[in-house]
Amino acid sequence: MGGTVDKSVMRKVTSETTGNERARVPSARSRVVRRDRETAHAPLRIPLPEQLHRLLHGIPFSDARDVFRERELLIDSFGRLFRRHGSGGDRIRPAPVDRQILARVKDRIHAEYASNLHLEDLAAEVGLTTFQLIGLFKRTVGLTPHAYLTQIRLSMACRRLRHAPALADVAPAVGFYDQSALNKHFKRCYGITPRQFARAAAA
Question: What whole-number distance in Å separates Cα of residue 14 and Cα of residue 52?
């Protein structure tokens, strides 16, 4: 694609990030956005306009069916980059550090980890924007909502693997969309595959 994103797309992501449907689309102060600690997770080898185009139009970087992660990446990357480097847009207010709000979201994640959770729904339930919810989790838990959800799913996968069910049944039972997704996250977290874990648990 080219170097620009349709204005309607930019308005949509600005609204989702700020929580204000009338918020102005930020304009960048500079065409050069330096990679720093806060934006190190964003795939900046691809220009920001193309990142937004891919994420909003369903063209994945990875984990093609992990909609939760894609939305989180989009909102967090956009909010951080334009809060630091943008001008002409509405201010993005941080979420209050409210343990009750956090507990409500965590309770729902624990109760519904195996279902198709949506970042927007979790945020709306407690009156936050998606960007505010991501920030709240980072400041209080040290993880993004998606990373926290993944940890819960992996923990539940370990419980099931200890009881030796059919390996293929574990991934959908704990919320991963397929076996390859479970394998990837499991090995990244624990350094072994689910099959290796199950064999060790049965020994």
Answer: 11
156: tokens are 């539940």
Q: pLDDT tens digits, residue range 61-105?
A: 555 568 888 888 878 877 776 666 554 555 556 666 688 899 999
Angle 130-140/67-85 helices, nearest 10 degrees?
90
Instruction: Tell me how crowded residue 187 is: count the other CB atoms within 10 A of its CB.
Output: 14
Q: What are phi and psi of 36, to 5 degrees?
A: -130, -175
Residues 6+ apart with CB under 8 A from 130: 16, 17, 71, 72, 75, 119, 120, 123
Q: Tell if the pTM clears 0.85, that is, is over it.
A: no
**Nearest 5 degrees, angle CA 150-CA 187-CA 39?**
55
**Tokens matching residue 42:** 């964003």
Instruction: Return d(Cα 171, Cα 185) in angstroms, integer.
Output: 11
Cα distances (Å, whole numbers) of residue 103 to 125, 126, 135, 136: 12, 10, 15, 11
Please give the backbone phi and psi of residue 144, each rounded to the nearest 5 degrees, phi first: -75, 165
Measured in whole angstroms, how far is the alpha carbon of residue 104 from the centre of its chain?
A: 18
- CA–CA dist 45, 58 (Å, integer): 19
